[in-house]
Structure formats: C-alpha cells, structure tokens
Amino acid sequence: MKKTPMTVAGAEQLKIELHRLKTVERPRIIQAIADARAHGDLSENAEYHAAKEQQSFVEGRIADLDMKLSTAQVIDPKTVNADGRVVFGATLSLRNDDASLEVTYQIVGDFEADITQGKISISSPIARALIGKELGDVVEVQVPGGVHSYEILEISYI
Asked: For the whole model, what pTM was predicted?
C-alpha cells in the first residue's frame, strides 16, 4: 500500500476528529435512531431517516480517516536534516516577483493542504518546483494563470 506523507500536526488533527466522531457523534446518532424507532412506523418517520443518513455520513468519514491514518507516513519537519534545502514539512517565506508580494507556505501532505492556512500540498505545482531548492533561489512555476517567479526568502522547519 502506498504511503502518503503527512506532518505530525496534520496526523494529530485527523486523530482528534476521528476520536470525536467515534466517542461523541456515533453514540449521539445511535441514540437518535433508538429514539426515532420508539415513535413507531419507520417507513414514514422523518427523524429515523435523518438519523440513518447522519449515521451513514459519520461512518463513511470514520472509514475515510482510518484509511488516511493507516496509509500516512508521518514526518516531523523538526527532525528532518535538510541542510537548508526545501523539503516536505518546510515552512517558506517567498516573494512573488510578479506582484512583489510576500507569502508564507508550509509544504504538507495532500490530506492536510489548506491554502487559507498557508498549507500547500506536496503535489501542487508550487511545492514540486520548490522541493530541493535553497535560500535565495528563484523558482519559476507554471500555474494555471501562467508562469510565476518566487524567490525563497526564508526556510524553517517547525
């Protein structure tokens, strides 16, 4: 089975969500189904059907999180000996030469990527172009909007 890279923080977030689903949501839904069954005829019982739908969603999410965690190769960026190079888990400050904007990104696994939090996927065009580069390097990246240049201003492993 193919392993998927994931940061320690990303794996911890998935574990927290999985624990909540198993210990809070699942028992709540089981109780809702039991309560709805007590009302009688299930064929016309909207509460029962809604609870069964919620149960299906939660069980699917639990299975999804179990799969993601079982295939995760958890990497702690603090322990990676990268010799100042951009690697998985690195946090980068970049200057977009086209717009003279500074941005900060952390390169993370596919399952934990969230651009609103400055986390980009290891498989994104920007991350793939940056991997292996060093401080001060200028990288040109082909993105759907055209070619963008980024200068690496800072690399940290946090």
From this structure: 0.84
